[in-house]
Amino acid sequence: MASFMGLFPYNMAGPLNFNHHNNYKYQIGNHRNSALFSCIDHNLTQHMLSCKRQSCSTTTITCSAANKPSPSTEVSSTAKIRSEVLSPFRSVRMFFYLAFIASGALGGLIATTRLIAALANPSRAAEVPEILKGLGIDIGAAAIFAFLYYRENKAKNVQLARLSREENLSNLKLRVDEKKIISVSSLRGVARLVICAGPAPFILESFKLSEPFTQSLLDRGVLVVPFASNGNLPSFEFDEGEEMKELTTKRKRLWQLAPIYVSEWSNWLDEQKKLAGVSPESPVYLSLRMDGRVRGSGVGYPPWNAFVAQLPPAKGMWSGLLDGMDGRVL
């Protein structure tokens, strides 16, 4: 399993990189927004009570999905505003770059006309070296500022693309239970999502591999979002035996979310794979920060042990102290 982080650094805004796994500093999650978890726990409790009434020895949870037209991929005004906030002096720099380019171009044009006149008049031949010197300075200045403008504009476009992808991700919908649907943005400050995208066997194997780390992952605010690339999400079976009751409750909580509106999720994931140069059929995972932004990705099974080692507990004496230290943005 290749695990690797790197979908976009904070100031580079590049595409998701499914080929490297980076080390990060992490933020301790702030769980003041605990009302959502309370609702989730209540729903899980009701589900367990229902199962006990039916005297079932094994519980099967089937994830379902629905389709909905995808939203426009144009850069929204919100993304543009966020870009201005993240780079407040970029517009000023770009304005001055354009002004200097225009100044250099105008100076070059004037110098060129003078050079032509000097070459046509032998009596002004002594002025040619000085005119050539000024022309070279004008051309050099215009070229330098044109390069700086190009680089700044490219960085702006990359940042806007990243922010637009983040906004699209935050608008994707999740099903908590049969009666509650939320957006990814609703879990900001509440949970660190890990998206497992691939065929049903891949998701089931990821489900099994996560079992030894269930408690540790929950302590770090991790919730898993399984997305079946073939559109058929698998059924998760939980042992309802009395000795496994506590673990089963935690397992259900860890894997309680299900994506809905398949086309939107599929389009978003396909875009990330395309930007990263990963084949559409490859099973991948994406790890989100507590603020809902992508912090890591990889091809293959999620590295549950790495998440436990790298992510800090979401509760305790350090809770809230390291907000913003949840790993760099990809």
From TrEMBL:
InterPro entries: LPA1-like (IPR021883)
This protein's name: Protein LOW PSII ACCUMULATION 1, chloroplastic
Transmembrane segments: 95-119, 131-150
This protein's record includes keyword Transmembrane: yes
Organism: Populus alba (White poplar)
Keywords from the UniProt entry: Membrane, Transmembrane, Transmembrane helix
Domain of life: Eukaryota
